[in-house]
Amino acid sequence: MSQNLSAPTEDPALLAAFEARIAAGESIEPKDWMPERYRKQLTRMMSQHAHSEIVGMLPEGNWITRAPSLRRKMSLIAKVQDEAGHGLYIYCGTETLGVDRHELVEQLLDGRAKYSSIFNYPTLSWADMGVIGWLVDGAAIVNQTVLAKASYGPYARAMVRICKEENFHKRQGYEICTVLAKGTPEQRAMLQDAVNRFWWPSLMMFGPSDTNSPNSAELLKWRVKRKTNDELRQRFVNLTVPQAIALGITLPDPDLHFAEATGDWVFGEIDWSEFFEVVKGNGPCNRERLEARRAAHDEGAWVRAAAVAHAAKQATRSTTVAA
Amino acid sequence: MPNGVIPDGQWPLWEVFTQGARGQPFEHAGSVHAADAEQALQNARDVYTRRGEAVNLWVVPSSAIVASAPSDAGPFFDPGNDKPYRHPQFYVAPRGVRIF
Amino acid sequence: MAHDEEHHAEEEVRAVVNKAPAAVIAAARTTTVDNPLFEYVLRLGDDRLVLGHRVSEWCGHGPILEEDIALSNIALDFVGHASSLLALAGEIEGKGRSEDTLAYFREAVAFRNALLVELPNGDFAFTIVRQFLFDAYSVLLWDALSRCGHEGLAAVATKSLKEDKYHLRHSSEWVVRLGDGTEESHRRVQEALDALWRYTGELFDHDAIDDAVAAHGIVVDHAGLKARWEAMVADVVQRATLTLPLDAPMRRGGRVGRHTEHLGHMLATMQIVARSHPGASW
After folding, report:
1. Which domains does chain C have, with CATH numbers?
2. Cβ-Cβ contacts under 8 Å for A153 (sequence gap 6 or more)
């Protein structure tokens, strides 16, 4: 029986049972039946998240060697190490959906996979380390706290672990900002400049308005996403503006104002053309980020091969001994 | 084994179990990639015990794990609600007698 | 005209000598160090600061994700040890220099690390072999110092020993893995070992500073340490199917501030932000 279908038809009974489980708030686990689209969407979403953690190591890693105190140096190394760990947790979660990490790495290095647009911006001063912890990790936390209740078990569990660790990142960042804000005129100027460069890209991290986001509806239905992009973005702004006021800096948005009626901090128009350019690959650092990852991967090939070769030799030896 | 013959990969997957304190059960913490057992142990230690979460570690190749299938759930896992005799509350002890 | 100039120059020299016949122009035969205990602890701290910094350069560039995490862990531990040691050194010096002042506001000639640790990372083989050679020495040294008569130093030694034992496990296993891996990995590791060998002698040097700190209860048997280190290294080299390099003239100088050209560049990067804002807090 030959059928020319773009996707295999799935048993409607199984699909109905699955959707009932989702509606009941149940966790879907790796060996459970799931629609192909669910598997695909999750693989895409989780691998994108993992790639973001890994690429995210680079803009911050850029300042480890220049951290201006030993305490800051250690905190920054620890933060970047955590990010590697987060990427690892999520890659492992993605692998439960039936894909090998090697394939995921290839997708990233080929340019086929996406990662969070924010990491395509350069880090130009020490103050960026504070601002990234405060704004970028801050935005990630708003996203992730919600993901901790995602319907796919391995993803939710990875998120719980990550959220526990993430809080130190944001606090470290905000502490750096506070010290700079109370510091010399040069330090205050450094902080303001960093905020001017990272504010809008941080808002863009939540993605385009859901009307423009093709995947949102499906992900919301399957309780992989729990809130809309706009809801999360507004939540982030409301949390962050008072923190900015406490620092005594300005935010680069002449239209920003408090609306008594809603209790929201209303912000200006986001330049989505910048966002789409960056997502397409034309951001300030897209090329450099991928080149760095490719270089690490290529230069590491002989190391990975050596470990495999050695393990094989050990295995042969032990079977020989056993025999 | 010459270099060129080895396909480039991310090493096999291992499952990691951590023991939070002496005497506690081992719990599944997640996975790591490693080429051999010693490396799996070290990687697991670096990834899953950075914040003092464990005093002991087990690592197992993921391929060695045998799992029950979700469809087994019914016949496999007895809910036990209709078998009260498995639970201590079913049994009456005279007052005043110390039950260990 | 030239003859006049020469005569004039001669007169100038004579004038200087006549004015200050007792000027001290020849250096003293022996120099004494003000505070040998301070220098001693500085050596320990600088080793780990420089090595920690070097290893931290791998963050985000490791051969596989798990190894990125492992290397970051090592870098973190070393910078931590350095921080404790430099703080201790500052206390001993008693001039109000903190660990940050010492780390960020000294020139290369004031650093007391061994040359081995300031060399650029090279490839993964070079990094791992350098790590192994240092880890083996560090574990033996900390073991000895954990029993020394200086309370502060003994405490740092005891804590650092635990972490360094773990580093040694990691680096020695990698030397074996790479040595007994593929032809390429074997070649790279052997080359690294051959290149690094001449920097190992300095680790076991004994000088006037070592003599002086005996007064503080710090007595390390360097010859004994070296013999045990050689045995450990030989064992791993053998398991790794590598060849121990032939003895060659050893490179030294770091312990007295005579470094390679690499250290200056490394410090220029490390210190730039701190130095650009003198007196600022971070």
Report:
1. 34-276 (1.20.1260.10)
2. A27, A28, A29, A30
Q: Which two tokens mark C186?
A: 């074997």
Beta bridge partners of A258: A265
Q: Which of A165-169, A303-307, C75-79 has the lowest mean pLDDT?
A: A165-169
* d(C-alpha B89, C-alpha C31), whole Å: 85
3-state secondary structure of B28: strand
> How many angstroms separate the CA atoms of A271 and C59, rounded?
33
Six-digit token pair at A16? 């109905």
Is the pTM higher than 0.90?
yes
- Tens-place pLDDT, residues C69-97: 999 999 999 999 999 999 999 999 999 99
Q: Which residue of A has its CA nearest to B1?
A: A309
Strand B56-61: give its sheet, edge to edge. Answer: B26-33, B13-19, B56-61
B13, A102: Cβ pair inside 8 Å?
no
Considering only the beta carbons, identify the residue of C59, C99, C273 that sits closest to A66: C273
Q: Do B46 and C64 touch (CB under 8 A)?
A: no
In this prediction, residues C180-192 reach a mean pLDDT of 98
Q: Closest to B33 (Cβ–Cβ): which among C66, C70, C173?
A: C66
CB of A89 closer than 8 Å to CB of A161: yes
Could you tell me the sign of the dihedral formed by the alpha carbons of A146, A148, A149, A152, in that order?
A: positive
Q: Are A115 and A108 in contact (CB under 8 A)?
A: yes
Q: What is the pLDDT of residues C92-119, one digit of tens each?
A: 999 999 999 999 999 999 999 999 999 9
| Distance of alpha carbon C216 from alpha carbon B100, whole angstroms | 60
* Sign of the dihedral defined by the CA atoms of residues C155, C159, C161, C162, in that order: positive
Distances C78 to A11, C14, C52 between C-alpha atoms, Å? 58, 56, 5
Q: Residue A320 carries which side chain, given as an amino acid letter? A: T
CA angle C9, C14, C19 (to 5 degrees): 130
Beta strands at A257-259 and A264-266: parallel, antiparallel or unpaired: antiparallel
Q: Three-state DSSP class for B84?
A: helix
| pLDDT value of position B4 | 53
Backbone CA torsion sign across C217, C222, C223, C229: positive
A4-20 pLDDT, tens per residue?
A: 444 567 788 989 999 99
Q: Residue B58, SS3?
A: strand
| Strand, helix or coil for residue C101 | helix
A3: which residues sit within 8 A by CB, 6+ positions away?
none
| DSSP single-letter state for residue B63 | G
| Amino acid (one-letter) located at C116 | L
User: What whole-number distance in Å separates Cα of residue C30 and Cα of residue C51?
Assistant: 31
In this structure, which amino acid lies at residue A222? W
Start-to-end C-alpha separation, chain C = 63
- Which subunits have 3 or more CB–CB pairs within 8 Å of chain C? A, B
| C270 in Cβ contact with C53 (< 8 Å) | yes
How many C-beta atoms surround the C-beta of residue A81 within 10 A?
Answer: 24
Q: Do B35 and A165 touch (CB under 8 A)?
A: no
Closest CA to A251 of A262, A229, A236, A263: A236
Q: What is the ipTM of this complex?
A: 0.94
Chain C, window 172-231: residues with a beta carbon less than 8 angstroms from a chain B beta carbon? 173, 177, 182-184
B39:C182 CB<8 A:
no
* C278: alpha, beta or left? (left if phi > 0; alpha if psi -120 to 50): beta
A304 touches B: beta carbon within 8 Å: yes
